[in-house]
Amino acid sequence: MKSFSLNYLVRPATKEQENGKFPAIFLLHGYGKDKEELFSMANELPQEYTIISVQAPYKLSDTEFFWYAIELVSSKWCDIVQAQATQYKLLTFIEECCKKYCLDTDKITLLGFDQGGILGLSLAISYPEKVQKVVALNSFIDKKLLIFGYQKNNFEKLKVCMLHGFSNSVIPIEWAQETISFLKSLHIANYFEIFPCGHNISPEMFYSFKKWIEEEL
What we know:
The protein contains five helices and twelve strands. About 40% of the residues are buried. By secondary structure, the protein is α/β, with parallel strands linked by helices.
């Protein structure tokens, strides 16, 4: 479905809310994937949420997309200009969806895998008034993506769930552990769990973040 600024898929909420607005989860796929990657889990997530799976704006091929140019194998290099443009596009897209689908702007969750998780973390820390929860799977925080003066933000309502594969060869577990230390330094509420898997979403990882989402509803 194409609407406004980005391509996406949507699973509407089926449970009415007292205020007439719905909490939402935006799914952010990994590098080289598309909006289908995480959408298969949509119907397994709480029916109170509107689930929107977003497709990255840049193409590797007709079925492979990325949020911004990145190199993780030998460094943490990324195209910072392209990354900032994507952050702006995603924030604009979230605002568009809030209006179109009657979403509760105080209950926005970003759930990202790989590069999608990196993007989700950077947006939440840079704009905690626009994103209240993040589920980051096999990801880390790239401080280069944070806006100037982010340390002065109010993080009282922000909560982060980070889940990581112990034998992840793409994003080392040490990067995730460093991210948790960084979150703690900002006094951001966080949950961290390590799983016996690699750079993938294991069934155990799925049920863990599903439980976290249900408890935080």
